[in-house]
Amino acid sequence: QVQLQESGPGLVKPSQTLSLTCTVSGDSITTNYYYWSWIRQPPGKGLEWIGYVGYSGSTYYSPSLKSRTSISRDTSKNQFTLQLSSVTPEDTAVYYCARVDAGSLGMDYWGKGTLATVSS
């Protein structure tokens, strides 16, 4: 059974960098043909895809967030990390990590999500 668990600070000040880590168990983040993705949901709004790191280490980001986003991975810990810079209160959201099938682009396993609040 694949499990994903998000972790990171729940409160970040404006203009700082939000850093979240997703720890994966039951699968390796280097397994062929899966991407490892970050998605967020602001309060009262829909889901927004942020980006992913692929099984080869390649990354791809949403154009709307690309200038502020970096996704990296630590294969020794089977973790991948989101960094979102220059945050504003509009970045307040529940952040999810998920596994993506590279063929269908379906997200088949999700973490439970973690709330990140941007506030001074």
Give the overall shape.
Answer: globular
Topology as a string of helices (H) and strands (E): EEEEEEEEEEE
Average pLDDT works out at 96
Percent strand equals over 45%
Task: Describe the sheet with the most strands.
Answer: 7 strands, mixed
Radius of gyration based on Cα positions: 13 Å
Structural class: mainly beta
DSSP helix fraction:
under 10%
The separation of the N and C termini measures 39 Å
Number of helices: 0
Q: What's the β-strand tally?
A: 11
- Low-pLDDT regions: none
Outline of the structure:
With 120 residues, the protein is mainly beta. It contains no helices and eleven strands.
Report on this model:
The protein has 120 residues and is mostly beta strands. It has no helices and 11 strands. The termini are far apart.
Tell me the layout of helices and strands:
Layout: E1 3-7, E2 11-12, E3 18-25, E4 34-41, E5 48-54, E6 59-61, E7 69-74, E8 79-84, E9 93-101, E10 107-110, E11 114-118
Record keyword descriptors for this entry.
four-stranded antiparallel beta sheet; 120 residues; mainly beta; 52% strand
